[in-house]
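Contributing new records

If you add data, match the layout below exactly. Sequence lines come first and carry their own label; structure lines follow with theirs. Keep one chain per record. Anything else will be rejected by the validation script.
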Amino acid sequence: MRFPPSIYFNLAALLILGVVTFYGLRNWEADIATDFTNAWIPGQASRIFPVDDIYSLQNRQTLVAYTPDWARREGFKRCNISYVGAEGFEFTATPFLYALLAEASTGNFDRDYFNFRTACTLAFIAAFIYFAWAFGYPLMMTACLMAFFAHCYWPLLMDIYVSNINRIQLLALAVIVALLALQEWPWEILTGFVYGLAAAAKPNLIYIAVLLFVHWGVRKRWVRLGNFALGLLPAVFFAWWLPHRYFGPTCTWNQWLTEHPQILYTDWYLTGGVLGKLTGTKNMLFFSVYGISFLAATAAAVAMMSRSSLNHWQTEIALMGLGVSVYILSGPIVHSHYFTLLIPWWLFVMRRFWRWRSSWGRTAWGLAALFLLSSHPLFSLWGLTQAPNHSLLTFAGAAILFALIFEDIRSPLPLAAD
């Protein structure tokens, strides 16, 4: 049996694009893995120096003083903390995330960092392929877009460079979307459980549940809402139990809630959000009022539009995208790598172009959003920036995408998986 030449060409093109993508995802890995180091050290703190509170300023500074000698004694070549300032390690993540990394750790920084990089790379590839398949992208288009994002999407490159977990979050979001499609009670409970773990590890996903609950309440889908909430309960318990079992009283949720604002709510962090960039304010009352108002307005709009929504799964996908966008557009602290989480919803709104070439205006807006989200280095050359890694133009791209998701709820088109 002889295959047509086009098959060989496509296979060769896919192989090349796969290599290019993998190289792009790995080539940006940092020698100073700032975020990974900050998340890895708490799990090893008892081996470095006795601490009674991971989040306290005194213990963070003490760990900085003792870690270099300890890392040299252990023979860790990649454990470089030269980026740490006078305030010590920035232990801002939740106890659950620290406990997860500690449980998965081998105790060897170099090996754990390699495993983490590999897991993040595979997670991004798997999530991207799933979202592209679910939204109807052909295989070759999927490969081309994945290669583009791996080399040109600045938030993703920053996530790779600082070794954050947004790529793993993308995989968690893909799992949630896949589970929501099953529309049966065991999977609805599992959806709540997976979401609960993802939100406990990094709370920038918390608004997703708010908008889903509003939608299900308006549609009177009480069973689906209840099953999702039922799945949250074991997730909440596990997120409390795991750090308690691993750390005891040295790293608790109460300490995180009490002390991590003192680390985060500084001039440098608060100028990362859209309100900080627009006004320069550092008043947390303003941030709170703005964030609550933005979420409430979005929830009210969702409530009105949910009354006429037909495809529940497609609407739920859109609401997840709105939840991610609301946090990015209203949060007091937004890092450049947070915009990595918008990739699936760009694919979601742009499926109109690849499958139905009827809305050129919205397609142009989608391409404009991608340009604004991807091009911070270019804007920096032009002087259009307020920070090293993102600017108001980046937020403008997120705002356009936010509006396109709303438009998709108002006038939906079918998904490939429908």
